[in-house]
What we know:
Number of strands: 2
Shape: globular
Radius of gyration: 18 Å
Distance between the termini: 27 Å
Strand content: under 5%
Number of helices: 15
Order of helices and strands: HHHHEEHHHHHHHHHHH
Largest sheet: 2 strands, antiparallel
Amino acid sequence: MTFDLDAYLDSRRQLVDQALAQRLETIAQSTPETLVSSMRYSLLAGGKRLRPILCLAACEAVGGTPEDAIDVACALEMIHTYSLIHDDLPSMDNDDFRRGRPTSHKVYGEAVAILTGDALLTESFRVALESRHRDPRRAAPLADTVFEMASAAGAAGMVGGQVIDIEATGKRIDLPHLERLHHGKTGELLLVSVRAGGRLGGAQPAELDRLSRYGRSLGLAFQIIDDVLDVTADLATLGKDPGSDREAGKTTFVDLLGIEAARTRAREVMASGIAALEPLGERAEALRALARFTVERDR
Length: 299
């Protein structure tokens, strides 16, 4: 029986969107209206919801349920959205569009955009820990998960990757350097999304290791395809300014490999990640389908 990825994505997206809206309503009770409006504008703007869906799929792949991981799934999307808001700022990538509409700073101004990102990042850790009192057995895996989330978002992860990206702008860097850059900037949070779902679903050490191998492969393949789309897609398809990385003088996988070789590299990397899931059987089919979607997507 063929796995229906579209139906799976629709159902999990709805679950995540509803959960995010509910958590924003809680935050709104004690937060300035402008800040809530700005948080809502960026967080509920749609998007692929790849990170929370990966978290839920990994949880299911080891026998858990979406409810076991939904708090952390929401937290991961909040971290991701914070990073997009800050990446789009004039002092960073200076982008005008995100998810098909004006970026946060274009609507709310730079100061509120910065504070919105700060709020989403900080609130994400509170949201991730919301279920800690409902089941004492969840305390340890939640603590390990939040530790990894903080590491992925922090100096050695997304922030460090962004600094490397800034320093590399206008310079020609080699393939290993580029892969290190994107592992920190993008790959770490994708990896943690998979590991978080597995851990909260009760993964055994060997299962968590296999999920980690898959997550690392997906993180690299995702960025390679992002670079391809940056030069092949238009604004309407991509939802953000196309060609912005090249115009900013950033080295991309397309620069180093060419379009077709980059696509081939992404498929090879992802095939290795899919192979790591084999012992997980049919329960991991959503992860396999998400991997294929990652390398075949057009946005």
